[in-house]
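Cross-posting from the modeling subforum.

Setting up a comparison between two proteins and wanted a second pair of eyes on the formatting. Protein 1 (sequence, then structure tokens):
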Amino acid sequence: MATDKDVLDQLLAGRDPQELFAKDGLPDELKKALSERMLAAELDDHLGWEAEAGADNRRNGSSKKTMLTGTSKVTLDIPRDRSGTFDPRLIAKYQRRFPDFDTKIISMYARGMTVREIRGHLDELYGIDVSPDLISTVTDAVLETVAEWQGRPLDACYPLRRRVDDPPDHRLILLRL
């Protein structure tokens, strides 16, 4: 999907180009606006279902929630309903991180970085101060999956190419285990 040039011009109007991609820049503003719109749509859908069931439930303001994204912290207004039955799917209750944030931590951990190195890296790149406990919690969540993958049965042989620039059918070597 191509973005309309007029929409881009409106988004960029009056902005300093140096600050567009800085902390709390345009991508974070868009992530906040899109997340809040999706949460509002979720509540609309929830209230529609309850109205069909005959319940007398309606909107009841919002609460603030700070989420860690891949680039910064974003404070969202999470809509509420009067009866307290709304449980958003986009950002579940007690969730404090967008999924891509966990993926980045796991990627750094898989590359051999220590918890302290990951913490320093996130602080240096994104200005996000996370606790070592948070990083440990994220990496511990995938340790079981990693152990399963490491213990998987291997095939008897694997085809390998000699060089990366060789054509796929040229000079194949079979590695036997």
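Protein 2 (same layout):
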Amino acid sequence: MNVSQTPLFPATIMPDKDWWRALWPDPEAVLRGVGIEPGMNIVDLCCGDGHFTRPMCRLAYPGKTWALDLDAALLGQAEQGCRDSPNFHAILGDARDLPKQIGELLDFVFMANTFHGVPDKTELAQAVYQALKPGGCFAIVNWYRRPREETIVLDRPRGPKTALRMEPEEVRQVVEPAGFRLEKVVAVGPYHYGAVFLKT
């Protein structure tokens, strides 16, 4: 998630914390659902304020958790929230430069609520592919393509415009050309799915 006057990835501004927490009351359950386990080295890609990073540090320990975002203020919030996690590392940078940002191959890359705004989605998937170990996973949490007026959180429509939302098959079509295979699609919330890809 990136937020600034001109976000790098359009329509991916970090939402207000009140409805974000109402939508994701149990982020650790989402992480478990997509397959994150203890001992994994993981990146929370476009981490925003660290809503998923904090439980990720706990769940992946003693594996390392990196939080990467282009927005320094949001990354600072993630750092503050994870200050007591010995396995936490923060990276200020572009998601598309992921292979250059970390000096070792990863077990898992997690990306929530941002993929819909990536201009060249296959290019990003290629960067993730290069950063993963053989057999590593790339999990994309995305909004189902439901009309925005139907995705109600705290009595208001939330999320990106309907036209930007992607069904799992649409995600598969742009990620698999980077060298991945769709392993599973899991429900992770009332309006979201997690598409988990395996590096082949």
